Amino acid sequence: MSGTPSSTWYEDFFTELPNEFWRRAVPPEVTVDEIDFVERRLGLAPRSLVLDVPCGSGRHSLELARRGHRVTGVDLSAEAIGHARRAAAGLDVDFVRADMRDVPRDGGFDAAVCLGNSFGYLELDGLREFVAALGAAVRPGGGLVVDFAAAAESVLPGYRAEPRTMRTGDITVLATGEYDVIGSRMFSRYRFTRGDEELDVTAIHHVYTVAQIVELLSRHGFGDVELFGGTDGEPFAVGGGRLLLVARRTS
Questions:
Q1: Cα–chain-centroid distance for residue 15?
Q2: pLDDT tens-digit readout, 107-121
Q3: Helix crossing, 28-42 with 59-66: angle to 10°?
Q4: Which is the most buried residue in 123, 149, 200, 250, by most CB within 10 A?
Q5: What global pTM score does this model have?
Q6: Alpha helix segments (H runs only) across 72-138
C-alpha cells in the first residue's frame, strides 16, 4: 500500500467491499442523531425538499425520507446508489448517480447536507465548483449542514498517523495514514479483507482551514455560519476532531 493516489481516487474507491464495511460500521442511532441535528439546527418544516450530496448508500437520505421530507440523494458510486434504491421502497426519495458537483442548480431545495466527511474529497478548484453548485441548488433562506473531520483546526494539532485495525462481521480493515505537507492533504490507505477477498485502496482528504471554508461559502451566498463539535450542539474546539458547520443561504 504505497505510492501517490490519483486525485480522482473517489471514482474507483467506493465498490461493494468498502461500501459494505461502512454500511455495517455506522450504528443506526448515529444516523438518527445526525438527522436530529440537521432538523433541529435548520428548523426543517414538514415535507422540506432536501439535497443529500454525496449520499453514499443513502443512510441520511433514507432517514430524512422516513421523517416525511422529499429527498434527492446524489452519489458517484454505482454500487452505493443501487443499494440505496433497493432500500428506498415506499419512500419519497430520488437517488441519482452523478458527480457531487453535478446537482440540480435551480434553487429549489430548502436544505442541503454534506455529511460523512466527504467535503474534503476534492482539490481546491473542485471544492469551489461544489460549493458553487450548493449555492445554486439551495433557495434563499434555505440551510446547509457540512460534517467535516479534516478541517486543519481539527486534525493538525498533535497529528499522529498510527496504524489501526477495524472489524465488522467478516470484514477486517487495516488502515494506515500519512500527511502530505506540500499538498495539505491526508492519505488514508486501507486493506480490506473478507474471506479470500483482499482490496487495497487509498482515500485522500484535502485539509482546509475553517476560514477557507467559510470564505468559500460566503462567495456563494451562505452566511450566518455556526460551528459545532458534535450533534449534541457542543461548540467546535481546536483539536476536537469533528466540525459540524451550519449555514444559511442569505443572498
A1: 17
A2: 999 999 999 999 999
A3: 60
A4: 149
A5: 0.96
A6: 78-87, 124-137
